[in-house]
Design goal:
4 domains, two-stranded antiparallel ribbon, 591 residues, mainly alpha
């Protein structure tokens, strides 16, 4: 079976019922649509009057007269093409009169014909007869055979219109809704309306000599479609607004904007109102500008995502809204930073940076993008201003040490024997409160390579310059600094690698020493010395007693040797386990 290709969908463009049970259920339930669903199909005036969309005025008047005759005797006339699977047809006098009035005007006839079936020849008649019997799949196959490609022609326009109407008519089943099939149906109908063959469609419905504006047809078609999906719009078993708008992607731009405008006006207005409210609050109280920026970002995020899905990221109108929103977020960041940085009561960098990053995350363009990037760079630099000041202070101290060393190495100092000494305690009075753990962690986690290297080199040199008591302070800060660094940092990597290598080498030395070590050597030596005394002949001691004492002493020696060997084995095993761990650590570090 051939499927009609559509540019934006890989699925069939019609509702092809593959499972026989679906057909049986359709006929058995006798109702695909619920009472509030698909009114343009279910309650189509042509269907109410038992007509096709291309019926003549004479056929129209004849049907009305027939329906009235049945109504006069209290009966309801049924017609061959009522298609019960679309639901019940109501043919009260009022409904019939209403249906007739709906298609009095030529443009209304064309409009409602788009949502009903045409009978333009033997192919349509064969398909419609199958629909009359409830054979939806067979009718689909007949119309599908006329669609050799995606081109709409004077020969296949009726089949395309009928196939799209059928697709639209059976898009729901027992309350479910298929957005993909719905989109295919709308695109198929759009192809018809925008093709040259649309003139043939209009002529078939209302005859020669009447011109109808194509844009009017498209707008009224779009309005009717939006009414059709109303019960399913933004429901869990329905269709999202963005999906509905996307269904019109192949329509002319003015129609896409017309449809999207039905849904985008509210989010646009909300975003603009939120921007204005934020600006007013920020002007009144810049102290809380960070909080206002946070609220602005959260209160507009969902609407902005919706507009992006509807229009696309490259849409000019979307980019204008993004730039306006990003600009206000950035201004919140700037105002908040400026006032708190001036007051100096707390550090505003992190909060200001967060709001500026919100602005950047929206992907603004042009001057707004450049302004945000410059602001971010400025904030990042100022964020570490205190760190640069500390490093500058350290370099001044190192400069003092160098001058003192130079002065002490001069001829005058050597001859006089007088030496200049650096006042370490005076320096430490400034250095201790300045170099707290918070600033050490801040620099280590800054991800700014030059800053990290400058700090590490400075503190390394200071450790070597000061006396033991004061150098211990700098050494501890250096250890803390390294612990805060990410493992990917070269300083941390080299430090950890060197540390592991030293520990590994020390363990190897310890293993060698342990293997060569004689356990309990002094104790064994004492026992052996005692053994020599025992072995000597003494008066009043029999041979038997002497041999017994020798055996007892030897047992003590053997027991101590055995104990030493066991302890050595345990110690060797412990060291070897530690070596395995260190070796694994080195391997993991270098891989």
């Amino acid at each position: 079976m051939t499927h009609l290709p559509l540019p934006r969908h890989s699925s069939p463009c019609y509702a092809k019922v593959k499972e026989p049970i679906f057909i049986r259920l359709t006929i058995k339930n006798n109702n695909i649509l619920n009472s509030t669903d698909m009114n343009a199909v279910k309650n189509n005036p042509y269907r109410t009057l038992g007509l096709f969309g291309n019926s003549t005025e004479k056929e129209l008047q004849k049907q009305i007269a027939t329906i009235k005759r049945f109504a006069e005797v209290g009966k309801t006339k049924a017609f061959d093409y009522d298609f019960p699977f679309f639901g019940e047809v109501v043919r009260s006098t009022e409904k019939v009169q209403e249906a007739a009035s709906k298609i009095e005007q030529a443009k209304n006839k064309v409009h409602y014909a788009l949502f009903w079936f045409l009978n333009s020849g033997h192919i349509d008649e064969a398909a419609l007869n199958n629909l009359k019997e409830g054979h939806i799949e067979k009718a689909t196959e007949i119309w599908e055979k006329t669609l050799k490609d995606s081109t709409v022609t004077a020969k296949n326009f009726a089949a395309i219109s009928n196939l799209s109407t059928l697709q639209l008519g059976i898009i729901t089943y027992n309350g479910s809704f298929d957005p993909e099939k719905f989109t295919a149906s709308i695109e198929l109908k759009g192809k018809l309306i925008m093709s040259d063959a649309c003139d043939s469609f209009i002529k078939t419905v209302i005859g020669e000599g009447i011109s109808i504006n194509r844009e009017t047809i498209l707008k009224e078609f779009a309005d009717e479609v939006m009414q059709i999906i109303k019960p399913y719009l933004n429901k869990s078993n329905g269709i999202k607004s963005s999906q509905l708008i996307s269904a019109f992607n192949l329509f002319p731009n003015e129609i896409r904007q017309y449809v999207s405008g039905k849904f985008t006006d509210r989010p646009i207005n909300n975003i603009e109102n939120q921007i204005e409210k934020t600006k007013q609050k920020r002007d009144d109280n810049p102290n809380d500008a960070e909080e206002y920026g946070e609220e602005l970002y959260k209160n507009t995020k969902e609407d902005l995502v919706f507009l992006k899905n509807v229009w696309g990221a490259n849409n000019v109108q979307y980019q204008m809204i993004v730039n306006k929103l990003s600009n206000e977020l950035l201004q919140c960041s700037i105002d908040f930073f400026n006032i708190h940085n001036k007051e100096g009561l707390f550090d505003p960098f992190d909060d200001s940076l967060k709001i500026a990053k919100y602005a950047k995350s929206l992907n603004p363009t042009g001057q707004v993008k450049n302004r945000i990037e410059e602001a971010l760079e400025t904030l990042k630099e100022m964020r570490y201003r205190d760190a640069h000041e500390i490093i500058g202070f350290f370099k001044q101290i190192l400069g003092v040490f160098e001058e003192v060393e130079k002065e002490n190495s001069g001829i005058e100092a050597l001859l006089s024997g007088r030496r200049t000494v650096v006042n370490e305690e005076k320096i430490m009075e400034v250095a201790r409160p300045l170099l707290d753990d918070q600033i050490v962690e801040k620099i280590a986690k800054s991800e700014k390579d030059n800053l990290i290297k400058d700090f590490y080199n400075s503190i390394n040199k200071l450790t070597a310059k000061f006396s033991h008591r004061n150098s211990d302070f700098f050494n501890k800060k250096k250890t803390a600094f390294i612990s805060f660094l990410p493992i990917t940092n070269s300083i941390k990597f080299n430090f950890e690698k060197s540390k592991l290598e030293n520990e590994f080498n020390n363990l190897q030395k310890e293993l060698t020493n342990t293997k060569n070590k004689k356990m309990y050597s002094s104790e064994i030596q004492t026992l052996e010395s005692q053994m020599s005394s025992i072995k000597e002949w003494q008066m009043f001691r029999s041979r038997e007693m002497r041999e017994s004492q020798i055996a007892t002493q030897q047992q003590k020696i053997n027991s101590l040797v055995s104990k030493g060997e066991n302890e050595k084995k345990k110690e060797i095993s412990r060291i070897e386990e530690q070596l395995v761990i260190k070796r694994r650590g080195l391997k993991n570090l270098t891989e």
